[in-house]
């Protein structure tokens, strides 16, 4: 069935005739899909009180009863967070199956029925609380104790069972349902099924401000469907269930297109090996459609319960990432490393300016290309790691076993606290970035780089900076030996001159890395 492009931008998200595949059917009412990074989908069947799993082997039952479980997600430790209709509780289920009630009451009264849930990068859990779970079929019929339907937050580290924080005016929503963050988590979207609209709020310090209507009139008397499940892609477009399937809004609120689904859609989730498959829970069935864009990078998407594979990610037909070079990158596995982009190395007036490094850096446009990579990675929640070569006054502790290190001492270069050791303008670390210091060529040698990579769950390194034939090459060799996939955007790297650069790019690096360009990396990230 054909999808509906209302604006040209929609073509960049989904092919007009992308097939919608039915993965399973015969259910009562499907909801709450969530993709596990190990390669499978969980989803709820509320009226049947069953939780099911889909993977390449098909659909199977994993839990019965579920307390009429509805919306689900994972936290950063891959604990399953579930909205239970029958118990009016938000619960956490550990990988070993143990269950903890996170929230069940507000102001001493039982919650209505937690419905949908998302987790922010600081570990806070946000959820909606309409009263669908007190209706027959979707829950357990019983009187309501609260006189309103709210949106709540469980702060990071809150004691289990502690009352959650009400984050909206208690009478603002009639039936708050789906909710999601923008990619940078500066915005929270909440839809209202009864009001057929979406509100957006500014998020500051765990509080919501400046609430306003983002989209309204999400209804059609000729097509079944209401605002329910909702999520942002990594470009900031908002996808929401609606009449006929899913409606997609640009970040400015423009309705840009519709995804046609054969049955009434209740919820959806990105998944698949490259996070470019949209799994849609629609009434009696589970569907899948391949899209061209990935999801907002949520904390659990970077986690793995099994060791990461160092294998090179395969190109995907669903993600024509690198415009012809075959490169496909999963943002949830990547980290960006920017090496030695410091004043003494690449700035006029720096200690090594006479080497020709500043001129070659300009010729490569390396600073601006590295900056573009950093900005895109931050938007996708990809860790940005700055590696700076820094020595104390007198270079104490620096082993003078090579001309490079002798030059650092002779030129009094890279001294901590000096202009020369500072990052070049445009590549200063931003809040949330990592800074790693070194005193050798390789970024791994004697540094915390691998500790940071393991903590972030990353096995693919996009490496750029200076010097191509020294720091870049040595770090790439070490990374390859350690099992990391090394990606080198060569126009975001520079050294003393074009000959040395080409020698590294055309020969040494070809054996240990995927050599590409900044534009191709940006395309591969989506």
UniProtKB/TrEMBL annotation:
GO terms for molecular function: hydrolase activity. InterPro entries: 6-blade_b-propeller_TolB-like, Isochorismatase-like_dom, Isochorismatase-like_sf, SGL, SMP-30/CGR1_Lactonase. Residues 299-324 are annotated as: Disordered. Residues 334-520 form the Isochorismatase-like domain. SUPFAM superfamilies: Calcium-dependent phosphotriesterase, Isochorismatase-like hydrolases. Residues 29-282 form the SMP-30/Gluconolactonase/LRE-like region domain. It holds the Pfam family Isochorismatase. Signal peptide: none annotated. It comes from the Bacteria. Keywords: Hydrolase. PANTHER family: LACTONASE DRP35, LIPOPROTEIN-RELATED. This is Isochorismatase family protein. It comes from Acuticoccus mangrovi.
